């Protein structure tokens, strides 16, 4: 009896594996087709300076518009693209596209905006990354310091000497490096000690808990202090309420990003948003009227 149950569970397991392999293959060819057909697009989420209330930057977030019109979020395809290596092509496309649009957005906003681009650990391991970055900055209407690469701790996991070298090279080019989702990894503190970075992004999970959990409120404050003590700026992600923003402002957080302030938008919609100065500067906190 136990034996047959055992055999059954083995059979189930290999079926699962087969299904997974098939869907991976199907996904891989769907992704290849998507690249050929230009089915990816970027949305941009505004990021605001907490003390002035003005927009300071944008984060580029990838989307996949499938043939049937449905739009897929990165969680639905980025992990698979990382597994198959296709993230290299997709990520390079995202970098080029974001850099090609930051000039337009900056003109619409009336100030040079920072453009944050998410870089997968898989891309980070490629020696070609540095050239791709240089090419993207040089061939577009932007200064190097306007580009900020968001990396997660995953980037630093495998060969940290090389990762350290890559980060140093990127920063020497005048490009900024941000650590994304700070606080969710295994040794955020260890990485902070080891890698020079320009910005920390406090993970949304901490921001979400600020109102209800004394611990989270204390933790965001600690992370902000920690960031500042290593000369990094701090951005809070996932700000969804006025109260969270108020706390973050009191705690000295530099920038904030979240649905409460602005949702990610397509390029055309963003230009319109930026051109409407009142909306661009309409800050939920009581702030002095910004100079236009
Ligand atoms: P992330 O870099 O931490 O990006 C922030 C995510 O939080 C985005 O989800 C954004 O839409 C969402 N978000 C922003 N404000 C709020 C808020 O107030 N509430 C809530 N609930 N969510 C908020 P999205 O666009 O689904 O992206 C998820 C992740 O996918 C990103 O997390 C990033 O790690 C990855 N990703 C996005 N674009 C790219 C890309 O071009 N390349 C790579 N490698 N990864 C990307
Ligand atoms: Mg990010
Ligand atoms: Mg993030
Ligand atoms: Mg996050």
TrEMBL record:
GO molecular function: catalytic activity
A GO cellular component annotation in the UniProt record: membrane
Every EAL domain range: 24-278
Signal peptide: none
Keywords: Membrane, Transmembrane, Transmembrane helix
Shown residues within the full chain: 552 to 843 of 844
Protein name: Diguanylate cyclase (GGDEF)-like protein/PAS domain S-box-containing protein
Protein species of origin: Silvibacterium bohemicum
